[in-house]
Specification:
Layout lengths: L9 H10 L9 H4 L4 E5 L1 H4 L2 H10 L2 E4 L5 H4 E3 L2 E2 L2 H12 L3 E9 L5 H6 L5 H18 L6 E6 L13 H6 L3 H12 L4 E6 L6 H17 L5 E4 L2 E3 L4 H13 L3 E10 L11 H19 L6 E6 L8 H6 L16 H17 L1
Parallel strand pairs: 1-2, 1-11, 2-5, 5-6, 6-7, 7-8, 8-10, 9-10, 10-11
Antiparallel strand pairs: 3-4
Helix pairs in contact: 8-10, 12-13, 13-15
Length: about 350
């Protein structure tokens, strides 16, 4: 019988066995994988009983989808509000889960006061504010958050250089490196990630990220891993995905599949998730997990899904159409994609053996 880590006593285990008859408990993702399996959450959803039960029992890692971003925690120049993020950490502590911090620096979701004043700051003033913010946030969560996306999406969408964000304009190309240094000053033990999208689908962006990583490693800039967001469609090239994994592993970095969702309705013409699309989604999920399973143990950080159930995915709002991209449907029922994850664990492990 498999003992799940979120049971704190033999009594709870016996209650579960009695309530489910003589059969073994149904496998959970967190107990089947040999690496953390995560989900992006919000405090409002964690307050819902069904949502909290699944988020707490299925997953061993959680990420705050939004409330640890500056918009929610940076109240004024040197004033901070950690209450929403603290509630996510408390949930994780109660369910024996690790917390991945997302994100310290991003050109989007800045607090209103910063958006309105940033143009008036000279580079030294903005640098000092940013350093103090990073120090304050990382120190607040020291010992509670195991890892941070230090800077999010600093590479241009086309992948051919740095994004011309206000941070780059004010602070120069090397601001990403300095942000990593500030985070390390605040917590010598926390893992530091650079996080971006299209890492597995845009070879030019991957090349630019790897060039930045190589520069960091040559100069001793702290970086422990790369977050591959994995907002993908059914047309993902597995060859490109494998190449990205291989190149990051060569640099002895951890890999976080950090924001996984698989779109099934790119044209917006489907009114429901068809059986064919669900099968394709299942098969692709299995291949992604199989390939991830086969990288060296020390390079696996986690696979994190960007939401729990389909109707709560950011993609519906972003694309204007349902995409059915996640493991659970609107009614909290497991989809074929869930089985695909388990299939990938099995085939990947068989290959390793």
């Amino acid at each position: 019988m498999r003992l799940f880590p979120f049971f704190s006593s033999l009594g709870l285990l016996l209650v579960m066995i009695i309530s489910n008859g003589l059969d073994s408990p149904e496998p959970r993702l967190r107990s089947m994988a040999n690496f953390p399996v995560g989900v992006a959450v919000s405090p409002q959803r964690l307050a819902q009983t069904d949502y909290a039960q699944i988020a707490g029992s299925e997953f061993s890692s959680i990420t705050a989808e939004n409330v640890m971003k500056p918009q929610y925690s940076w109240a004024a120049e040197r004033e901070y509000d950690f209450s929403a993020g603290d509630s996510v950490v408390a949930f994780a502590e109660n369910h024996n889960q690790q917390v991945h911090g997302h994100t310290l620096v991003w050109h989007m979701m800045q607090p209103k006061w910063l958006r309105e004043s940033i143009d008036s700051y000279d580079s030294a003033t903005l640098e000092n504010l940013l350093r103090d913010y990073i120090h304050s946030v990382v120190k607040h969560y020291r010992g509670k958050v195991v890892s941070w996306d230090v800077v999010n999406e600093a590479i241009a969408a086309e992948g051919d250089g740095m994004r011309n964000s206000v941070y780059r304009q004010k602070l120069g190309d090397d601001y990403v490196a300095r942000c990593h240094q500030y985070a390390r000053e605040a917590d010598p033990d926390v893992l530091l990630f650079y996080n971006d999208y299209s890492v597995a689908t845009n070879p030019e962006k991957l090349k630019t990220i790897l060039t930045m990583v190589d520069d960091f490693q040559a100069r001793g800039i702290p970086i422990d891993g790369v977050g591959m967001q994995m907002h993908i469609g059914l047309d993902l090239s597995l060859d490109n995905f494998q190449y990205a994994l291989d190149e990051i592993v060569k640099r002895n970095l951890k890999i976080h599949l950090s924001e996984v969702d698989i779109r099934t309705n790119p044209e917006g013409t489907a009114g429901m998730l068809t059986e064919e699309a669900a099968q394709q989604q299942q098969e692709l999920m299995a291949e992604i997990v199989r390939l991830y399973q086969q990288i060296p143990e020390q390079n696996k950080f986690a696979i994190t899904f960007w939401g729990l159930r389909d109707n709560e995915s950011w993609l519906t709002q972003n694309t204007g159409n349902p995409q059915w991209p996640l493991l659970f449907d609107d009614n909290f029922s497991k989809k074929p994609m869930y089985q695909g994850f388990l299939d990938g664990l099995e085939t990947g492990q068989t290959k390793l053996n």
